[in-house]
Amino acid sequence: MKKTGKFFLILILIFLMSACGVPGGSIPTVIPPTDTLAVSLPATSAPTAAPSQTSFPPIPTSTLRLPSPAPSLQTAGPYLASLLSTNGGLDLQLLDQDGKGQKVLPFPTGADTNFNWLSPDGKWLAYYTGSAGKCMGEVGPDTADLTLHLMSLPDGQTKVSIHLLSKNYPNIFVQAAQNLGRPNVNALGLENAFVCGIKSLAWSPDGRTLAFAGEMDGLSSDLYTYSMQTGTVTRMSSGPEEVNLIDWSPDGKWILDGSGYNAGEGSTHDFFGTRLDDRKVVPQLTAPDYCGWLDNLTYIVNDDQNGQGAFNIRVVNVETGQARSLWKDVFAGGCALDPTHGLIAVSGITSTTTYDGSLFLINGASGAKTRLLDGIWEVYRSEVKGQSFFLKETPLGIDSKKYFLAADGTLTPTNLDLDVLTVSPQGDQLAGGEGNQLMIYTPDGSVVRSLDLPIDPADTIDGIIWQTDSSGLFVLVHSGSQIVVTGAFLFAVDLSLGTAKLIYQSPVGLIPIVLLPSNH
To answer: Fewest 10 Å CB contacts: which of 81, 95, 153, 448?
Structure first.
């Protein structure tokens, strides 16, 4: 780590698998010519019995000090990656899961710090530098030099750079609007749609292909791919609309993109499905809200514009573009899908005045509906093992009953709140913080373990991430208030031994924190 007096700004925790070579040799940084394709149980109360609790031995407060510099990485991964601001620059720090070894790499100047762009295997990080302008008037640079890069992890080498804008950018939107000749489409609307969507990208499930939006070859953004095996960029589609959404089918054979002429309130997506192997483009339908893939060939959309309404949930076949309605009645907004079992959970509403309604489970293939519970519910996809959904009843906006919902319709009451808990990779335990205690729960809400961290009870546990084998966790703690942070501590917790090792301490604080799922 660079020797500096203070650390401030950002801590991003992610698990990275050990890096390995790319098939076919090194990846070229020069972009080859692109190809162009013309697009012609009754409800019951939550458990109230006092849970069993096993306390770990307290940790001596003498360990609460700035750790000495750690040796180099001791394992082949996975690693915990921390992005730290040091004297105006950024360092990427990799830690072994037990916190014993580390590696510090300089992070590229001006790089976007969105770590949602990590490849599924944890070996590559996609990031942007430069700008294409300001989305919807947001504050930021306007340099017209937006570039997509690929960094190899854990060596920190940037091996691919792709310039995403044409030589005529940004003088393209007036020409594009004139070519369209539509009274409801103007240059400003096209620019907003372009800038707000140009950072759309998605890795294929196997991590071999990156799909992204670019404007190297036309007056609008189009769908492109980069092959990690061949090092080639391919233009997958061409059209007048601006790409603002990209997602892969679970089997990696189809790329779905949503495009439009506007951004913001009231905007919609025209969806297109592109087959990876032959670049066949299948126009789909128009919808405001994309929910996700239900299986390898179908995905879910609705007409949600925030709140409650008759949003017409539809299932779409990506091969044919044909849509079939699953729900036309009023329901509480949001999408909750279980792709493993092809299920959708919907909170139907019969009266927004008296708050009457029922929870339904819909089979995406047959359209069959099963009514399960009365009331209006917030519905979320659950990562807990054997449970498809998590339900929270919201009478007049006040949370009360909570359930897990299995694929067979079984409801299991719980007193947990998944908004503040982190699920283990195996899905059988959950972790949360209460004061200076780290609490480990079973899905029914029972406390199975608690660990007293050597911190002030007034301090705040701000982030928890499980190690990949669920044998331990990393815990970030902040001192002070939400407004003035006076310190931060990062602990590596070993659940089998009941120990917590301080592996990082800052006298100022690390804000904000973003926790991403571990990569297997």
So the answer is: 448
